[in-house]
Task: inverse folding
């Protein structure tokens, strides 16, 4: 019996290396080798740094914005959900991995039996009966129905669970990086709306002075009601803009508070889009599209693809016999004091083999499902890379011409301001009509508004370029390195 058991264990050890999962090869060719260059796309800067290696604390220069981001990373509820998902995946891995090892149980029993035998020539328990007590004590330890993973079914399921853990960790990193970008964009939007509100209030004062002047001229018979109505149109337009922007500022603060997970202190809110740089202005130099493979969302899709590969291996292994082992060792004695003495040792072993002869297509259906899931995972992975490529290309296209737009809008706003002053002076001198002066004021106001909007586009574009190129990834890798699981 011992020889048979030893032979069985030796045979299973030799077969334990079987693995029917397909060999994993990373899909290639989903996007071009290099990111777009030339045309509207910016030329590579020779002194630019790899933004994926720049932590967010180094990228964002405004100390108030850094404080808001720090608070958001500590309080955002979506991040807490992502962290809980990682813990759930790790727990599921622990449950699945436990099947690789036998479950050992220990137990003990005590049996008491009383036998009553009648006297010779008679039956029953009457006079002359003999009573005897039998005591049996037993202590055992053993395993029950432990599956010998000959064909890699359990190991592939464990690998799939492990890749799910890696995928959830990458999803958490992706959520953190996206949150940083969302908070920064919301903060900059609030700054832009505050700047627009300041501009509208200053312009309202100018329009109010003009309206007062035209009313007085109309009162004394120098001006016309048409001029009064035209001046009032500009004034009411500025009043409407102020009301709209005041509501927008409140909505911006609500959006920022939701992202941060708490009310942002007033001293951490931006007053406007100042002339000082709020972020680093560094473009990537000769960036290969391989940088996209380091993005957490792409890595998550790849881990899910590897998990589906492992599921195929588990589905294939189900076509082969399942061998399980039940065994116990222990002691048996008729006296409690002799339970652990020599000669009381006992053991039992019962290997079992199971192979379904007919299952109505269940196993073949599971295998077909696993293959289809793997094909879907390949497409999802390729789509993740294509989406990342498009996001970076869009950000670069925006970035390539934003300098020209800023320069043009700045010059336009300056020219419009000068034109408005000159037109007002010419109107007061009687050279130009009042309509020309009003039109110049409207043009200057619109040019200032557009310049603020373009500055917001520039700042938001830097944030998006930083995010889409994997900015902040170094921070997330360092913060989670201690919790990563070893590769299977």
Result:
């Amino acid at each position: 019996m011992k020889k048979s058991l030893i032979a069985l264990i030796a045979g299973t050890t030799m077969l334990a290396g079987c693995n029917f999962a397909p060999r994993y090869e990373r899909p290639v060719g989903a996007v071009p080798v290099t990111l777009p260059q030339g045309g509207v796309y910016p030329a590579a800067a020779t002194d630019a740094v790899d933004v994926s290696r720049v932590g967010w604390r180094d990228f964002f220069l405004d100390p108030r914005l850094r404080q808001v981001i720090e608070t958001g990373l500590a309080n955002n509820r979506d991040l807490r959900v992502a962290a809980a998902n990682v813990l759930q995946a790790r727990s599921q891995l622990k449950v699945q991995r436990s099947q690789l090892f036998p479950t050992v149980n220990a137990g003990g029993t005590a049996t008491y039996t009383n036998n009553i035998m009648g006297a010779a020539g008679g039956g029953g328990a009457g006079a002359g009966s003999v009573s005897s007590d039998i005591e049996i004590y037993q202590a055992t330890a053993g395993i029950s129905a432990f599956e010998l993973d000959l064909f890699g079914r359990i190991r592939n399921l464990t690998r799939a669970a492990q890749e799910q853990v890696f995928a959830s960790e990458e999803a958490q990193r992706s959520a953190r990086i996206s949150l940083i970008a969302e908070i920064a964009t919301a903060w900059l939007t609030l700054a832009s709306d505050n700047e627009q509100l300041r501009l509208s209030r200053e312009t309202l004062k100018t329009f109010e002075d003009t309206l007062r002047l035209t009313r007085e001229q109309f009162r004394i018979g120098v001006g016309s009601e048409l001029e009064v109505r035209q001046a009032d149109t500009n004034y009411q337009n500025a009043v409407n803009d102020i009301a709209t922007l005041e509501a927008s500022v409140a909505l911006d603060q609500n959006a920022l508070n939701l992202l941060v997970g708490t009310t942002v202190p007033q001293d951490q809110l931006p007053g406007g889009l100042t002339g000082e740089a709020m972020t680093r202005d560094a473009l990537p130099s000769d960036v290969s599209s391989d940088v996209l493979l380091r993005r957490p969302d792409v890595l998550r899709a790849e881990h899910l693809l590897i998990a589906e590969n492992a599921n195929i291996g588990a589905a294939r292994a189900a076509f082969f016999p399942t061998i399980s082992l039940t065994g116990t060792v222990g002691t048996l004695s008729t006296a409690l004091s002799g339970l652990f003495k020599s000669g009381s040792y006992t053991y039992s072993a019962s290997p079992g083999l199971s192979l379904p002869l007919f299952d109505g297509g269940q196993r073949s259906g599971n295998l077909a499902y696993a293959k289809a899931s793997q094909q879907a995972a390949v497409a999802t992975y390729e789509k993740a890379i294509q989406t990342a490529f498009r996001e970076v290309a869009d950000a670069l296209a925006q970035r390539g011409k934003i300098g020209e737009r800023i320069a043009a809008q700045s010059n336009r706003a300056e020219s419009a301001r000068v034109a408005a002053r000159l037109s007002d002076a010419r109107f007061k001198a009687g050279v130009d009509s009042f309509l020309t002066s009003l039109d110049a004021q409207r043009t200057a106001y619109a040019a200032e508004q557009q310049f603020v909007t373009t500055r917001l586009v520039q700042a938001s574009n830097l944030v998006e370029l930083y995010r889409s190129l994997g900015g902040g990834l170094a921070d997330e890798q360092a913060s989670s390195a201690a919790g990563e699981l070893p590769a299977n």
